[in-house]
Known about the structure:
- The chain has about 1300 residues and is α+β, with helices and mostly antiparallel strands.
- About 45% of the residues lie in helices and about 10% in strands.
- It has 34 helices and 28 strands.
- Strands 22, 25, 26, 27 and 28 form a five-stranded antiparallel β-sheet that branches.
- It starts with 5 loop residues before the first helix and ends with a helix.
- Residues about 1-40, about 115-125, about 140-195, about 560-615, about 710-745, about 885-895 and about 940-945 have low confidence and may be disordered.
Amino acid sequence: MEEDDEPLLFQASWGRAEEEEEDGVMHAAGQSCSAGNAGVCGAWRAAGWIYTQPWASGLVLGLAILLPCALFAYMLLYCPPLDIDLSYSAFEVHSHFSAERFDALTIAVKTQLGSWDRRRRDVDYSQSEALQELLLEKLGGTGGLNKTPIHLNSSSQGAAAHQDTRTKPDLSQRELRLQVRNATSRRRRFASNYYMQSQALWRIELVFVAQGKGNHNIFTPERLQTIHHVEHLLMQHPQFHQFCWKPLEILRDLPLGPSYCSPPSSVLSYLYPSERGGKIYYDGMGPDLADIQGSLSLAITHPQFYWYVDESLTPEHLSSSLLRSEIHFGAPLPSYYSLQDRTDEQRARFKNFVVQYADTLAKQSTSQVKVLYGGTELFDDEVRHTFYNDMMLAVISGACITVLVYILTSFSVFLTFFGLVSIGLSCLMALFLYHVVFGVRYLGILNGVAAFVIIGIGVDDVFVFISTFRQASHLRQPRERMIYTVKTAGRATFLTSFTTAAAYAANTFSQIPAVHDFGLFMALIVSCCWLWVSIMMPAALCVWTRHVEPHEHGWLNCAKLFPGLSTSYSPLSDEDGDVALLSVEMEPGFCDAEGDAAILSLSVETDVTPPGQQHVGVVSTNLQWGLKHLVAEPTVKHRKVVLGVFLLVFLLSAGCCCLLRPATRAPLLFRKDTNLQTLLALRSNLSGQGISCPMCSGVFMEKPHPLHTHASSFPFRFSAHQHGPTPAATPQSFINSSMNQTGSLLTVYISKLDQGVSTTIYSFSLNASIESPWKSTDHKELSSFQAFSQPQSNYTTRMTVCVSHVYRPNPSWMITSGSCDSLHGWTRDFSFFAAASPQQNSRRLYFAQCHQRPHPSRVCVNTPGCGYSSGPDGHSRGSFYVPFPSDPPPSTVNKTSKTSGFNPCSGGACTHPAVRPLVDTGAMVFVVFGILGVNRTEHKDNHVIGDMGSIILDPDFDIFKEMGHLCKICKAVGANRQLVKPGGAQCLPSGNKLSSVLPLLHPDCQSLPEPNLLPGQLSHGVVGMHGDKVRWLSMAFESTTYKGKSSFQTYSDFLQWETFIQEQLAGLPQSSALQRGFQTCEHWKQIFMEIIGVESALWSLLLSLAICVATVSVFTAHPLLLLPVLITILGVICLVVAIMYWLGWEMGAVEAISLSILVGSSVDYCLHLVEGYLLAPAVTDHDLVCSAERQRRTLQAVNHVGVAIVSSAVTTAISTVPLFFCIIVPFAKFGQIVAINTAISIFFTLTMTVAMLASVAPPRFSRHRRAVLKATLAVMAASALGALICWVGRQQGALAWLSIRT
């Protein structure tokens, strides 16, 4: 600040300058009007009359509430339902060529096969034989074609995974017709249960991941025992037998008993075999662990084994970091005759059953094994619950906002209610316009965050109306005060709301449907929010002033009767002992037809608040005082320092923006530690989601083997990985050892008492009988365990069971490793001995004492069940090891089963390991011929849920003319080891005889590459037949592209594929129809979705900034008032991006889309401050230097709008805090970016914008119509010039791209 300016600005009294500022300030409300503005002034008078009549204001409030409610009810009752799209596919760009290519193939396969399901389907090879007959007829020269429509059940892995997965059963059309016919006959000829649940239709996917310290090998005894326990736990569900899969092959497995439910499809079928009648059954139902090395050596002789493990496992190194498992469920269910008999009802019954496993599976992870679970129904249900739980955080946000608004309105329940109701009603109105008027049928995942953002924007408008109404409290006439409030606050909020809505509307130009819909919805909701707040708040203020304020004043005055409570003054009153508020001197004859209504001038006059307008309040006046003395005045005084610091921060943050890298990994949808995200991340390492292996376990791969053939050849041995006897030890020696210990074995029985209280009491007894009111534990809890009554071998740790009768009416039990505490009423009941470390054939149990009365103990198998905190009675929490329970009663010998340590490969009985097949771990690329594209002329909404359109077939495609070229392309692509995995070429549909027929048609078709697939796995090659002609062909190649890479890294793989395929097609004759072929992949759609998302979001950011600059230029009508706003927005954007870099974020789709809202969210506060500067009256005293005038108007602007914008910023920040705790990562990052943006925006507004206004703003500029007109013309000219430049650049770019392609 200049030295000669300081006395003028900070003198004790404002003196003559302040008195002149009061010239005609408030009489602009309409005391006199010129003839040309009589209609306008008449409208203001009408508004003033309505908003000063309580009955009219009440009528306005009623209509404003009823109209949105009625329209919303009409939408719900008479319009198509509004679908909620939670899928990530909503971000797909259907207009992009990568999406059009893959959608065309998807539609073709769905048309050919009826559906393109998530699962691979077993088909009858007769379909391939039909194609073989067609080729033979052509070879014979007959020219006849098979008139029977052929459906080749061969599809592409994972294509359209979101389509029809819940509505199409896992069967081909032909099989469905056969089953309907067979089911009818079986109804008459066979028992009703013969056909029940024989088709594997549903499944639960389990993935067990090794974790913890040490070697992450899943094949250790402790980890395998955990997996075995989890699989058995799922089968112990009371309703499991009603839904389990019952294939006919299970009938030969005698140990499965009368239920004949298929055990889990798991490697544990080899590791836990059963024994019955001297035979070994590899069903995984055995009680003891066999020899790990020998069992794996047997399992790896089958190629199906590789489906269960990761890609690092080799025959020389039998180690895997994870293990897959599937539990299949069968259909038709009991009381249904076929799969088509009430399909939806069967699916609903299964879904209601299977979701019960979610809570159980979520608790099964241990320190050594992380249990992941999925499957269509389980996964979708968890996604839905996660979304709803995150949305429930909006309730917490709303409660916090309600409390904050209640405080900032001086504890006015009335104003708080109508302020929030106006915001809520605007949401209903925006939904009506969005769905009915604009015809959008989908509500995307991004729209969910609108509930958090609109709260901050709407409360901003509410606070501006309340603050302006307070500023006009010196106007004696209620109509003049209300006209001033509506005119000033309405114009200020319109300016900011229009700019914010325009910035959000820039996202409607995005190619991504979800971003487009989000931009439209936000623009509508911001506009409706301004309109409803402008209508309802003046009416609410009128009713509040006349009827509500006196009652609230009397209620709040009661607080003075309580000692220790201080009183202050309300933000709606003007009484403050520390800061002099504003006063008004009106002069008649003033009209603001050419300019703005000036705000009240800042003075040091004594308070003249009308009686009855004071009541208790503390927040607003203290906040106003703090903003003036602690923020505004220091910033104005040291404005050069503030601008210098801002320049350094701006340069530093701009440099960090350049360092922000594109994403190097696939985008996260959920938190890293959640089951959903971990499972999604692992799927890039697992076989494709479309491949299921229900018959890959030992139940189907191995026949029952006589036990003696293995036992006689070599003694039983335990793997080196196992704890237990040395290799020389035999099971018989261990059994004898166990027999010597049976005399000291005892069984501890557990029962519980649940009387509806918060703590369940568990009892421990040596008596198996249970007396009322005690009852047995359920299937999820431990019911009993065996231990030793005397020290045996390593079982030397004494555990004591204590009982207390202090907590009546029922006793309470406790387990402790110490002694019973008699001071608390505990007495010894009995003791047992356990081991402190793992033993052979032992299991680990956990115990803990509840810290709540009556302090019972609990024993469980896993730590999640024993989540009690350490109790108050000594050593009451820990773990111990006990022998595994035996089948015979406790009085009999606890014998080890014959399968314990069993080695099926002893004596070299196992054959050589199988070659690893391809199981779709890489991206599947398709080379398609005969399809020109997709027709979407009737598909206008460009949304993923809508109709995908129809395919356009190539009329010139003839497979027989192009047979030689097709075979050459298949060989060339399959031989490219840089792009295709060995054995990854799948040029033909499933069928063993097609490869023998094709060489007869053309010599180039000899020695076609053979795919290395799982036995029974279908080829992804598809031939499309329409009528009696082959119309299109799709070859499949499993690429070397790793699906876990980021989109930006995978883009280079796409370019390599595109270049190579174009080179192959370019070598064909010009007349060949194959030149119109293309390569496509579902993974390409995903990478372009993210790349386009980032680019589109950045372009939307620039467009939002351009729109913001244009609107601010028109509203401020002066370039020196535009400059502070523009620099503030640029500073906010750069610093937010720099903070993203400092936090270690990368620029992915989620971050880019979040950035697209920065302009709309950051323009409000600085624009309100500039509007306050314009409303501050300019003095006519030319003796006052320009710098002092700028500083005076700047301080008045802060005094006028400071409280409102700070209150709005605090409200917005608090509304986004619950988003931090969301499980869905886009929500969490969106909330973090909005909170960071809000904090930086309000900070820069109160510092940099204030310093800029005090330094460069026009000192005596008053906005008038001619200035606004000039600014409008300038903006239009600049927009036209920019549009012309963009058009020319686009044309030149299109020509350049065309020249490059040709």
